[in-house]
Design a protein that fits this description.
single chain, 312 residues, alpha/beta, TIM Barrel, eight-stranded parallel beta barrel, two-stranded antiparallel ribbon, orotidine-5'-phosphate decarboxylase activity, Aldolase_TIM, Orotidine 5'-phosphate decarboxylase
């Protein structure tokens, strides 16, 4: 299954991290923007061109040490179809370097509409008998709060195309508890119930390392809940946001991992992308090298509390 490939990459690199590619123009060095604006002007096309150049530079410095990237769709969609093209090209480039790609779209719908999202991001589009990948990600973040009607259309593609999904369970944002922490049916929380639904949805797509193709998004900003969910959801692989810029640290993430040091991948976006802006006197052309240094620091920080990562 899809997460078997991710787990193998994590163990190979001894690195349970994913670099979030959530680019803003403010994160991009001036020399890149100047070159793109010279070609296309200060337009949507110029911005998208700068983003793609920036992303490729990051990927070139990260692919041998970081197993995965996670582009967030919104940061590309804001530049219209030029930005969407940059998203597709970013995914293609990362995969050409052997990276696992988690497309962060948080898609949420039912029936044939959800099937269309699944085909777009994980499957192949039928063009009058010919099939072609539209985006080609390895996994997609989704919102499960429409219930099984919004998840079942994804499971067929996950099984057929060796893909995975990450369902929002306990998110890292401060207001997540307004809904997710509510208790019902005794003392069961909404987030725990959603997690148990992930376990159930994943039963038909369990991989050789014991984790299913239905993962869960669980934030590092709530370490006690992260530990609770690891115990309750033994077959659910976690995508863990909240490390770094949102305040989560390595110790906060520790509870996401099993006894073999696997079971989760931890995201950092601004921490890696903007590392160059935090080093006084750094030549902006070394932005990607600064990202590499931060990715290594993050890897070593997590490994110091997780230990060696090994296959079951």
């Amino acid at each position: 299954m899809s997460f078997d490939r991710l787990i193998e990459k994590i163990v190979e690199k001894q690195n349970p991290t994913v670099a979030g590619l959530d680019p803003k123009l403010a994160y991009i060095p001036e020399y890149i923007k100047e070159e793109s604006f010279k070609k296309y002007g200060k337009t949507l096309e110029g911005a998208a061109d700068a983003i793609l150049t920036y992303n490729k530079g990051l990927i070139d410095e990260l692919y041998d040490i970081v197993p995965a990237v996670k582009p967030q769709c919104a940061y590309y969609e804001m530049y219209g179809w030029y930005g969407v093209r940059a998203l597709a090209e970013t995914i293609k480039y990362a995969k050409s370097k052997g990276m696992f790609v988690i497309t962060d779209g948080k898609r949420n719908d039912i029936g044939t509409t959800m099937e269309a999202y699944a085909i777009a991001h994980l499957g192949e589009t039928d063009i009058d008998g010919e099939k072609e990948e539209a985006f080609g990600g390895d996994a997609l973040t989704v919102n499960g709060y429409l219930g099984s009607d919004g998840i079942n259309p994804l499971l067929t593609i996950c099984e057929e195309k060796d893909k995975g999904i990450f369902v929002l369970v306990k998110t890292s944002n401060p207001s997540s508890g307004e809904l997710q922490n509510l208790e019902f049916r005794g003392d069961e929380t909404v987030y725990l119930h959603m997690g148990r639904m992930c376990e159930d949805w994943g039963k038909k797509v369990v991989g050789k390392y014991g984790y299913s193709g239905v993962g869960a998004v669980v934030g590092a900003t709530y370490p006690e809940m992260l530990t609770e969910l690891r115990g309750e959801l033994p077959k659910t692989f976690f995508l863990v946001p909240g490390y770094g810029a949102q305040g989560g640290g390595a110790n906060d993430c520790k509870g996401a991992f099993d006894q073999n040091g696997i079971g989760a991948i931890v995201n950092s976006s601004r921490g890696i992308m903007c590392a160059w802006q935090k080093i006084e006197g750094l030549d902006e052309k070394d932005y990607a090298k600064a990202a590499r240094q931060e990715a290594i620091r993050m890897r070593d920080d997590l490994k110091s509390v997780i230990g060696e990562m090994k296959l079951k």
